[in-house]
Design brief:
It is a single chain. With 185 residues, the protein is of the alpha+beta class. The protein has one domain: Beta Barrel (Lipocalin). Helix content is 22%, strand content 41%. The chain has an eight-stranded antiparallel β-barrel with strand order 1-2-3-4-5-6-7-8. Bound molecules: 2-acetamido-2-deoxy-beta-D-glucopyranose (NAG). The site of 2-acetamido-2-deoxy-beta-D-glucopyranose has 3 residues, from loops. 2-acetamido-2-deoxy-beta-D-glucopyranose binds next to loops. This is Lipocalin 10.
Length: 185
Amino acid sequence: MGPGQLWPVLLLALVLAVGSQLQEQLPRESHNLNWNKFSGFWYILAVASDAQGFLPGRDKRKLGASLVQIHRAGQLKVVFAFTRSQGCQSHTLILRKDGKKAVFRNALKGVAGFRVLTTDYSSGVVAVHLGRAGRTSRTLLFFSRQNTSSFLGLKKFVDICEALELARGVTVLPKDASCAHTILP
Ligand SMILES: *[C@@H]1O[C@H](CO)[C@@H](O)[C@H](O)[C@H]1NC(C)=O
């Protein structure tokens, strides 16, 4: 192999090494998440998605919200409120835990995965995979107990989006809680 042929191989090795390092920097699935502490009302302050048309036009965007409840062992009830192009909409989902993994699903409703990537119970990052086999979209949600976030909190969200190659889709939502408050408990 001449030097000219070696270069692409080295480059590939470098890309793989950096890629796996990023994976390792990512928070592990929260196996020891305390779901009682994670339960309750969350504002969704920012979103990053590779789904087409996930967010409405700029002038229609508002804060989202999620209400998380333990339904029964291994089941979560999750309500989402989002402003779409049709206006404020809420959806209720019952999600089941996937065996021993810290991921919840509802295949019938097209939720291929709901997992908490990281949380300190006052804010957190949630990954939601929507769609069915082979055709899923990825959306990351920045959860916060309060309607605003510190710069560092937001930076952490953006860092995770970058590691998962979703940074180009990061959108910070305008501070209008009128849709979010429709699902206040
Ligand atoms: C955010 O929350 C604070 C404290 O609860 C409240 O005073 C403020 O009006 C809220 N802002 C919005 C935009 O909802």
